[in-house]
Amino acid sequence: MQTPPDRHEYPAHWEADVVLRDGGTARVRPIAADDADRLVSFYEQVSAESKYYRFFAPYPRLSAKDVHRFTHHDFVDRVGLAATVGGEFIATVRYDRIAADGRPASAPADEAEVAFLVQDAHQGRGVASALLEHVAAVARERGIRRFAAEVLPANTKMIKVFTDAGYQQKRSFEDGVVRLEFDLEPTDRSLAVQRAREQRAEARSVARLLAPGSVAVVGAGRTPGGVGRSILENLRDAGFTGRLYAVNGALQEKELAGVPAHRSMRDIGEPVDLAVIAVPAGRVPEAVAECGEHGVQGLVVVSAGYAESGPEGRERQRELVRQARTYGMRLIGPNAFGVINTSPRTRLNASLAPQMPRTGRIGLFAQSGAIGIALLSRLHRRGGGVTGVTGVSTFVSSGNRADVSGNDVLQYWYDDPDTDVALMYLESIGNPRKFTRLARRTAAAKPLVVVQGARHGGAAPQGHAVRATRLPHATVSALLRQAGVIRVDTITELVDAGLLLARQPLPAGPRVAILGNSESLGLLTYDACLAQGLRPLPPRDLTTGASAEDFRAALAHALADDACDAVVVTAIPAVGERSAADAALAEALRSASAAAPAKPVLVVHVELGGLAEALSAAASTAPAGGTAPDGTTRTGTTPDGIASAAGPAPRSAAVLPEAENAEAGSAEAGSAEADSRLIPAYPAAERAVRALAEAVKYGQWRQEAADPGRVPEYEDIDEKGAAEQIGRLLVDGEGGATAEAGQTEPGAAVPTTDPGPAAGALTLGPDDTCALLARYGIDVRRALPAPTPGEAAAAAKNLGYPVALKTTAPHLRHRADLGGVRLDLADEEQLRRAYAELTSLFGEPGELRPVVQAMAPRGVDTVVRAVIDPAAGAVLSFGLAGAASELLGDTAHRLIPVTDRDAASLVRSIRTAPLLFGWRGSAPADVAALEELLLRLSRLVDDHPEVVSVSLEPVVVAPRGLSVLGASVRLAPPPARDDLGPRTLPVY
Fold first, then answer.
1. What DSSP designation does 116 have?
2. Cβ pair 636, 660 in contact under 8 A
3. Are the C-beta atoms of residues 450 and 397 closer than 8 Å to each other?
4. The model scores a pTM over 0.90
5. CB count in 10 Å sphere of residue 817
6. Do residues 798 and 813 make contact, with C-beta atoms less than 8 angstroms apart?
7. Chain centre to alpha carbon of residue 462
8. DSSP string covering 75-98, please?
9. Contact, 978 vs 886, CB < 8 A?
10. Residue 756 backbone zone (phi > 0: left; psi -120 to 50: alpha; other: beta)
11. For residue 251, pLDDT beyond 90
12. What is the pLDDT of residues 678-702, one digit of tens each?
């Protein structure tokens, strides 16, 4: 695309793929001079009414002058964006910078007129709303702070686009025209609107893949056993409720395996919603093109030979995604195992799983096909592993997850009335900031259990394009837990936790009652509870002669005890015939638990297949009776129509009332078993207790999430001044020396090349570091360079005695234990003596880089850091200085932005926290001042994405106040697109 001398370079970073309201996709990109023919063609397809609304007069066609004006932009004062599908325009938006009098202008004018035009066939798809988000982001990047739009009163759709966006607006009416003016600074409401639209669009895009009205299998062959043929037969045998087609260019038959067969997608005379592509990788582009031209809404590509096969395959995968999005299609795969939806309304088994899972309330997502098979098998079978029968609502195996990812599926599950618990096996997280945001919201409504594979491999699995994290796995896990994610280490633990959360209510606390007919098994359970941080009550031994009635009475008594939050029942088999006894015991336990539906019950059994089957007799994880923690009544039915009542995990507030009413109606039509509930059984005490401990921690997180705290507003923060300073430093590169604030003389900033979190960033010198931090109320104690004894004495006189003399050489910095620091120097004599000692011990002043600093009040030395990790996002870290954090790893972390509750918990979550609270009679530190420092630093990093790293070390927290003795700041240009920007699909 042309770039004459008077024009800016084509801004390729403005290009983005977006998901529209109906789940389809479009591409947003700048309009350039070679788009003239596309613009004319687009305009010809717009109705006369839409043209009238755009130009306020009949305007049947564009003149050559119009076409030139609308396709030639400088990408600063005049910008045009287009939404395209199939390479053709479906909508346009443009802005022109204007002065206060409304005439064309250049910077520093910060207002622009904006206008939209959407093809009539695509109105109602949310195209204008998506374009508004993107053109607003472009305008802010170019220094425009306010949009103005003139709209005819009859153009209610466009007025609604502006008013619903959530920006602060001013409306006026003059000369028959509505004039809207609104600031482009994002507000809480505009961000909430954007997130809600994102959720609806992405959820709908997944729904089109999981609940299609028709499916075509491209590559289904004549010979049974092939991939395509197997998927076709699986769809047929599952009882898919929609239309099913087989497509293969080599077919002469009109029918294959009892399914209508065609040689090409073009030969199918009806719409096709979903295509499953199972052809060699070299033939996939042709198949995708046929699907796109036929209007297919989504693809599942099971074909291999893509990024998992090397660089050539990776490029083939990129082209596959580009091609699918060109036609507005979402894509699962490639190298996918398939998708399953057990809803009776759909009955979709578009996967390689030969048997349709039972209908249930658990959603499964797996990036690995092999792990997906293992999860489905464990949830499906009776006996072994976690015993009992359970079912799934939906299953997605994403393969290389080149397009649809776990984030998309989370958006779908969030308000899916058929899913109560989400289980995910992840080998990589492509957009961690978005994942933690979605996880936090989802976990507030329903449990999310995650096991992460390849976490110690040091690299992403083949086929996955991800950002590498520099944080330890334990830190990433802790951050996920803060977002409400239930983190487990194995797929066995994944299923264990999922069964409990799907079948039982959340425990109100950690107090656990233990009862059973084996004293030894009870003691093992007691020890396991202590190891998991639970508070077990003394085990109650019912003896080996206990009857089913004894178990019922003991369980009822335990559940009625206000000092008990959950009950673990341990059982060993009786000698002789067991089936009748197992059934009686299962019925006794269900009867007792149904009387106290607010408390979870688990069973630890030893080789009791009959008991496990009896406990799971309802054969479903359908919603069950009783009262969930949110106060809703839960009922449901089994696949056989037998009503069952359980106490599953609380459901989303977004569940439709109609769904609840429908389930209640089914329960009323059920049998007397409606008052029973499913009880999960485990073959080992450790597994049961581990699952229970996860449920307890999740329940506590739910309680805390109800009141997450707030991000305080500090009146003395100069956000605008900080932004101007950061912008100037990044442009000019005049940030001072690369050492910490106050450590060396000012100099020129240089890009750092160390491999830390801010590699390639600009490290600020002491003056700019202190100035930037001061804008957020963070004061750094001055440290003056002392290259000679005389200059050291002069610096001390300037600062005032007593002073400290410190070396700042990299190998000695923050290492008081090596003797590179001299404290409480009361006069010049002591200072000169200390200077001589340091230089005699460690070397010449030029090597040691000594500095003089005024003494700070004594206190507890701590370290505060903030970093933008490429995978985890913005992270705030805290620990005590020295061995505690460096050797023992006693450091805590929180995701930014940090609330007041987060700051308080961050300080108290390290193991050495008692040192801050008067341990062994010492004076308590000023924790309130420390928490305020954490909040201010969080605000700095959250307000300015250019701040990629801040280190405050040491921070001495005294009984009154604190002192920041050392600081370093690194800046880098912000990413062109991140999770804080307009909605966009990830670029593969």
1. E
2. no
3. no
4. no
5. 9
6. no
7. 22
8. SSSEEEEEEEETTEEEEEEEEEEE
9. no
10. beta
11. no
12. 888 898 999 999 999 999 999 999 9
